[in-house]
Write a structure and sequence with these properties.
- This protein is mainly beta.
- Helix content is 0%, strand content 46%.
- The strands form five sheets. A four-stranded antiparallel sheet has the order 4-5-6-7, with no helix packed on it.
């Protein structure tokens, strides 16, 4: 958000200078891939250190800290699972953390995890993609269909029309201004039409070269 470029490799974070074309390694981690990253507009990067938790890196000072499921039971709500596959900072400044088993949420203003009943939302469900709609709804792509979280009710529910996608990972999400949700999955591209309550599949034809779409 500050116009700087940051790159993640398998285990390292780099800064990139687009004017000189040079890069510099800023951080070396020991997980199994830095597979997603986002920033909070205050100079902090939130990085998935896959299998080791969430790394919070301060681009101003170069300092970092790690949140892990191993910190559970120490008085405050903790990250539910260290295998993070999706990250999203919504319009309220809340960081949504999709993991191999459940969905956690961090308040970026005070650094506290949300205290959900049971420890997290969607326990035992793999949360693979996240996005926010214009109305503030949070959509969660999983291996068990498309889910939607509402701040008004503080609940998450399955979008019933997405039941045919159960068993296929939803690897990326995009919400149009009219509320329709596009989903890239391991079995084609799908469109949830919110107004009509229909699910349309684009699996064969339409010029598509593959049925399997990667994360992001």
């Amino acid at each position: 958000s500050k116009g700087q470029y940051w790159l993640c490799t398998e285990q390292a974070l780099f800064s990139y200078n687009r004017k000189t074309g040079t890069s510099e390694m800023k951080l070396k981690l020991d997980g199994w891939g830095l597979n997603c990253m986002t920033d909070d507009k205050a100079g902090r990067l939130y990085i998935s250190n896959f299998g080791k938790g969430l790394c919070i890196y301060d681009t101003n000072s170069g300092e970092y800290r790690t949140l892990s499921m191993n910190q559970q039971g120490k008085g405050k709500p903790a990250l539910w699972n260290d295998w993070i596959s999706s990250l999203l900072i919504d319009s309220k400044g809340m960081l949504w953390i999709g993991t191999a088993k459940g969905l956690s949420r961090l308040n970026t203003a005070n650094g506290n995890m949300s205290n959900f009943s049971g420890g997290c939302l969607l326990p035992d469900i793999r949360c693979t993609a996240l996005t926010e709609a214009d109305n503030g709804a949070i959509y969660i792509g999983t291996n068990n269909g498309l889910h939607r979280y509402s701040y008004k009710t503080n609940t998450v529910e399955l979008v019933d029309e997405s039941r045919p996608l159960e068993g296929h990972d939803i690897s990326c999400l995009y919400v149009e201004k009219n509320g329709d949700v596009w989903m890239g999955t391991t079995n084609g591209i799908w469109l949830y039409c919110k107004k009509d309550g229909k699910l349309l599949g684009y699996v064969h034809g339409y010029g598509l070269q593959s049925r399997e779409y990667k994360y992001g």
